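Each letter names a residue; the fold follows as tokens. Both lines appear below:
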Amino acid sequence: MFELDLKSRKSIYEQVIDNLKEMIMTDELPFDSKLPSVRELSKQIFRLLDCKGVVRTDYMYDRVSGELYITEINTIPGSMAFYLWEKDGLPYSDLIDRLVEYAEKAHADKNINNYAYTSDILKSAVIGGKGAKGSKGSKAVKA
């Protein structure tokens, strides 16, 4: 864990965020070593749910049981936390380029799997008329 410097010029909030960023970027969160890394688990969830673009996966950790719980998969996160990507050598501008490329590919894949058929199969169908279901005993209405 980390310690807060109460004499720091940074607010407690800023210190917590800075420390959490460092812990996330180094995968040094205080979790049981038996658990897969949060990063790897997040990747698995992303793939299993066939997510696209950027998602934020939120977790809760129970210190008593040692269990890690997924609380939310947010497909429209308010922040892309680009600093997490830069740690792995992916600058923000390259991240945006990749996201655009992925979106274009997903759109093309969607269009490839879209089919439209033209058919005259219903052109000669009789709707209502003699023998139509539910017409037994009905009387013709004169206008």
Notes: The mean pLDDT is 75. Helices lie at 12-25, 38-48, 82-86, 92-112. The beta strands are 56-62, 67-74. The radius of gyration is 28 Å.
